[in-house]
Amino acid sequence: MKVVQFTIPVSRESTIVVQEETLPHYYPHLHRHREVQIEWVVEGSGILVAGNYMQRFESGDIYIIGANQSHIFKNDESYFNPDEPRQIHSVSIFFDPNYLSQNILSLPEMANIRKFVHGVHNGFQIPEEAREAVQKIISEIIQHKESQRVASFIKLLYQFSTTRDLKPLATSNSEQVISEVEGIRMDRIFQYLVTNYKRHISLAEISEIANLTPQAFCRYFKKHTDKTFVSFLNEVRINEACKIILSGKFDSFSDICYQTGFDHVTNFNRVFKKTTGMSPGEYQKGFRDI
């Protein structure tokens, strides 16, 4: 299977493809497809990487992935442990934005929706306050067939086009032109980092994984993620730290520091606040107060 270019089984008799799945885990490799993807994580958790965006995803989250936007929903380690049987439940809706624009969205009444669809390139996360309304419409799409399904789908696009505070999933379009060979290399880099983040990873080590010199790797990684290797690795570690804090299964913040690959508590606290805007203690208190 090609790692980057992923083919969605789009039927010529359907405007959209709806997939509701219950699986042990998400497809664990960086990939892309020409269709826009609307993803409702009904059940599951892990790290989403889309373009130069990276953040934890949790049950209930809803995302819009842009056409040809490289992405990966990387589940937590426990999903791959046979001694801890877990599963994900997801609803995915795929549509070809070009086909839609040439047909249904060509109507003058669809101008605002058409404008929204044309601006999806970098993807979005749906804000929490809009989730319930979006989930209700997606449930209608699942239940309906043929013309009723299309009507509900247009209703969903209208909901998106009128929703405030959509959070972009990336700040640059440059990574979308990534070649398949580069995509395979980037996937290899991501897989190595998310598997080995708990220990020290040197620049020389990760450069060897990418089959590049350290200097070339730094330029390459920055070009495709708009982040330095160290900042990306720290984000992986802080996302894992946030998961541990929310679970409540830890003795002290220093324990979390060493569990997530940091070698000094002071550095952990500094990076945590820079990444989340809060200290570990403030982050914990914020979720206790919800």
UniProtKB/TrEMBL annotation:
Coiled-coil-forming residues are none
InterPro entries documented for this protein: Homeodomain-like_sf, HTH_AraC, HTH_AraC-typ_CS, RmlC-like_jellyroll, RmlC_Cupin_sf
Domain HTH araC/xylS-type, by residue range, is 187-286
Q: Which keywords does this Swiss-Prot/TrEMBL entry list?
A: DNA-binding, Transcription, Transcription regulation
Which GO terms fall under molecular function for this chain's record? DNA-binding transcription factor activity; sequence-specific DNA binding
Protein's recorded name: Transcriptional regulator, AraC family
Organism, per UniProt? Dyadobacter fermentans (strain ATCC 700827 / DSM 18053 / CIP 107007 / KCTC 52180 / NS114)
